[in-house]
Amino acid sequence: MNINRYDKVLLYCIPIVLCLITFHWIRMIGFAGMDDGWMLLEDKLIPMGFTNKVFLNINNLQYSPLNTLYYILIYKIDGFNPYWYHLGSLLIHLFNGYLVYKLLTKIFEVFEIRPLEKEEYQVVPYIIMLTWLIHPFNVESVVWISASKIPLYTLFFLLSFYYFILAFTKKQHIVVYYGLSIIFFICSFLSKEQALVLPMVIGVFIIIYCIKEQQKIRFSYVIWLSPYLILSLIFAAITLYCLHYEGAEHPFDKFPIEKRLFFTFYSLGFYIFNSPLPIDLHYHYPFPIKPTEDIPILIIVISVMLVVSLCFLLHTLRKDKNYLTYIFFFLFFLINIVLCLHILPLPRASIVADRYMYLSLLGTLSAIYIYFFDWTKLKIKERSTQKVVFISASCLVIIGFMVYSNALVQDWLSR
Question: Which of 25, 241, 350, 387 could serve as a FRET partner for 264 with CA atoms 20 to 30 Å apart?
């Protein structure tokens, strides 16, 4: 799509303006009572500056040295002034929006999503990016200073995946792109342990790509993936070591596997439903029961309904030309949220959390927008009533999300 210089400037300014409006209360938010103390204010390494001790430090059973270095960098600007920490999170969030656009554009091109034309491979990712930037799910990750690990690891995660796709699909600069992808993968884990699922995302991408291109999955593709798998195993070992550092444990309730299974489906339903229709979001969602109590009937009903709905949806879409694309984006969502679904007995203070959807939200939003374009047969270049309705509906959705997100930001003024 040919865009002149002035239109490009406008397109770059729109997400910045939307974020400034949505998050304008952030400048007045101080440090939060929960976690900002041990995570930042009480960390003795922050005032010490850049030392190798950062890479040997395990803070409250968590290992995130790049996040600590990020805090140190901001501390050098004006000490423990919350304004600069909030500004840093907002700037990273904006840059992540740009990476979301670049990554989705590349995926749309590689998968040749229909009925979109090549000129529309940039339009739909741009709309998804705008929606993602101001989505109420992402407020917590941006305004809570202790959650800075999430935007930071996402930045490197997106870069790693993007450069892998470039290396895998292009014939030039393969070594450079592949090397950058590995480096950014390491940086992502050093920001937050959740990055270790990247090889699963890459593996799904390779499989979907081979099926679409009617290729066999070659052994060379396993070689492509093996460095990521090896690093992921190392990262998993480091994470498990940190969780039991010096015999310590988190003071959270531990549930048996049969109850965690229902929590898994409840959490999935919460995240999927609130992607298009965020309602009554909070900063904390306590477990509905104690480990010794029975599962509420409501959670059982939600779990059964979710399984039936997903099976029906997969059956309905199986003949759709974008079926594999839907599978990819659903698995992208699922893989990036899997560590927070209670399948593994990892310590969790709440049954769900908005911040867990920061990266996974790309999967659900992408699938929703692709389905909408496929269902309406909308053509961006053509003048039609459908186009007017789509633009109007998109504007209403974005404005609605902005208003709700702005209200959630204001809630943090009292925390």
Answer: 241
